[in-house]
Amino acid sequence: AGARIASMVTREPSTTYIREMVGGNNVAEQKFNIATQGHRQPGSAFNPFILATAMNQGISPDTPFVSEPKHFNLGGPNSVWDVSNYDSLYLGKISLEKATIYSDNAVYAELMMRVGAGDVADMAHKAGIKTSFSAQPAIALGGLDNGVTPLELASAYSTFANGGSRVAGSVDYLGNGGDPISIFRVEDAQSHVVEENKPLVSPVIDPVIAYHVNNILKKV
Questions:
Q1: Contact 83, 106 (CB under 8 A)
Q2: Closest Cα to residue 117, out of 203, 54, 210, 206?
Q3: In this structure, what DSSP letter does residue 4 have?
Q4: Cα(167)–Cα(204) distance, rounded to whole angstroms?
Q5: Averaged over 169-180, what is the pLDDT?
Q6: Residue of 134, 128, 144, 122 lying closest to 177 (CA atoms)
Q7: pTM of the full predicted structure?
């Protein structure tokens, strides 16, 4: 049987330093770093960006929803979106906070229809998701056409942990904005510093929203 391959990233929110990274089982056998190159569907791990978008639009975590099978008309022929929960388990009338804690697909699909996929995509990118993806309702369930890497998801979560401030390295090695810091500096053969990579802090999410997201995620 083929061996399963897992990935892990540990990032320090306040400095953006990468403390640990597991990108595969054996670099000699697999020239592919899952942590930085492996785009996978985030599933319910995408919920905090939807929750933050909702709060940014004035929807409180106490807002009531009904956990039940949902049917949405997306506006075109044969474009009905049916959403159900895992194992068909439903909780009836619940708050948005409880829907987050129990990862309720049906409620989050309805929330997505309320807040708009475009605003959710903007929130995710502000937080630190770099990979582009289509702003369509399925992202409510973490269904992204291009997926995300473990590194960028860890980076985006760090923005919440950092009170709404996104931290990235000052050196843009890949030309798409600063990344979490794994290289402190570059020196020449004479040990002269060519580039020094320092943490840069950018407030991107309301600190009050980040505070509430963090408190709810602690209960998950």
A1: yes
A2: 54
A3: P
A4: 10
A5: 87
A6: 128
A7: 0.91
